[in-house]
């Protein structure tokens, strides 16, 4: 068996390739020096451990002895986990997208020893197809070109690098005004893309992209657009019923390959599920009868379903959240999740089977074939809710069927679990648990959030002597720290990324709003100060994705795309605006405003690319309503007021206490009882109240 350098790494994705015949290196100085010394081009392959097509290319090509031998002789081969190094991935994905018109994973790029790309693509097949060469033929062509026309390749790489610098450059254009019309224009574009039959904003393949429906709900609230609300709720309904939602185990897959949300790409990602919790919590609030005329729905139950799945299957015993679960099991995509008619008819009683088959739409031919495998399984049924109206008398039969099916799932070989803990994605899920704890009034979610932030502070947050010494006279030395990005198997990495700081900051702010514990506010302020010190571009606005002086990057870029994950710039903007409202800190607000201005042209011309930043813009457009709660935090009255403050759909409110580092006016508001709530805008407040019902009435006005 072959063993290469990846055997010493911690990334589950890199470890999956540790026994390939390819002489893989990790992304480090050792690999770069090897390329320079041996004067070889670099073959860079980027993916992640739950990526189905990454598995396919490994099986077809990277496990092939001939391919391995050719790569060893002619290239320095480097593997990168895109989830650990999104900054590396961003640069080379931008290159491939700009030169080929498309991108995805696995991402395969050829570089000079100076790390400049000159050719790239995504999946390359093992044999020639449709006029395209096989992967080995491509390697032979590039090796020949390097041998015979190296200077031309180097010159071309320099030219492509210059073009890449232009593509990634981000300077503020003219001083464009940002107004509610920007939101209205974006929302109308999203509504035009709405699928009235199946929900969602766009066609197949369908990604949830929660930033878009979250924005549409905000705009509907701002402009009184009931039709937009119904679009989002219909989307939530169809996703909930579809195969993209694991109907037995909970949680959502990454996307559906069709327009109906039926056939998923089965991997489950932490970042998707965190954002979907926020969407379903918003849907839960906006569908309440005291806020709208819509019939109350089960959206809060869907949020619980996701969170309970994460607690059961995606949580480290000490509180960190794991990254993902794979699409494949035993080499077949979706095998763990699918059922045949024959299997279910033998497992269930006749009565149970009839109810379950009607509910889930079970057929002999099935609704899914894994065509990516050489010997695809047949007759496979992805579970989706085809006939939701189960008579009351039959509901115990359906429950019994689900219990038996879950017991069978427990005996199947589960998909691979990517058990690394990322600061960024943990921040997203931290915020989801924190907010759910107070919206749904469930203590176990608050406990999970508190445990998670303690885990991150212990494993990934370091107050280093070097940082303290270099703090400078204008920043408090005790508020300087370092947030590393990845922890796994007892070790953290040495990488710092904007999304780590920004996403965790956003999550900690939500935890503060859910508890009003001053210690959480203190930590949020620490994170925000370090975020500004290390990533903010004070001259032009916006945040760099990586640290200055990072020597393994050919470019320093500002991430400007909200895709499946929101960008660090978008999350940082909203978090800083909210923290400015809580603390009164003008430096936080100014940095957020400069960032909005930097991206103003893109917000107006390409709103779909920055949907999450449009959520931040919506927050910025008006003075936020502040709910200040004073009193004894351990009292029932205090907790009732806190729950009430979060029980009305008002996305641009902030909730704060009167203790700790809050803004000065909040400190003047005190309680003579166990708890008092003040609803304020600026320095004007409604009459204080001790009653949760009165607070709900004030917020609903």
Spans of at least 5 consecutive residues with low confidence: 467-479
Helices, by number, come to 27
* Number of DSSP strand runs: 21
The end-to-end distance, rounded to whole angstroms, is 70 Å
Major beta-sheet overview: 5 strands, mixed
Q: Structural class of the helix and strand makeup? A: alpha+beta
Q: Which descriptor suits the 3D outline?
A: globular
* Arithmetic mean pLDDT: 93
Output the strand order for the largest sheet: 1-3-2-4-5
Strand content: 5-15%
Instruction: Note the quaternary state here.
Output: single chain
Short description:
The chain is α+β, with helices and mostly antiparallel strands and 701 residues long. It is 48% helix and 10% strand.
Written description of the protein model:
The protein is an alpha+beta fold and 701 residues long. Among the domains are: 5-168, Glutaredoxin (3-Layer(aba) Sandwich), CATH 3.40.30.10; 197-418, no CATH class; 623-701, 3-Layer(aba) Sandwich (Glutaredoxin). The chain is 48% helix and 10% strand. The protein contains 27 helices and 21 strands. It has a five-stranded mixed β-sheet with strand order 1-3-2-4-5, with helices on both faces. The chain starts with 11 loop residues before the first helix and ends with a helix.
Give keywords.
Glutaredoxin, 48% helix, 4-stranded mixed β-sheet, alpha+beta, 701 residues, 5-stranded mixed β-sheet
What topology does this entry show?
Elements: H1 12-16, E1 24-26, H2 29-38, E2 42-47, H3 52-62, H4 65-74, E3 76-81, H5 86-100, E4 107-111, E5 117-121, H6 135-148, H7 150-168, H8 180-192, H9 211-223, H10 226-241, E6 255-256, E7 264-265, E8 268-269, H11 270-286, H12 299-313, E9 324-325, E10 328-329, E11 332-333, H13 341-347, H14 350-360, H15 395-409, E12 417-418, E13 421-422, H16 423-439, H17 443-459, E14 461-462, H18 465-469, E15 482-483, E16 486-488, E17 491-492, H19 498-515, H20 518-535, H21 568-583, H22 586-598, H23 600-605, H24 611-620, E18 625-631, H25 636-645, E19 653-656, H26 664-667, E20 675-681, E21 684-685, H27 692-699
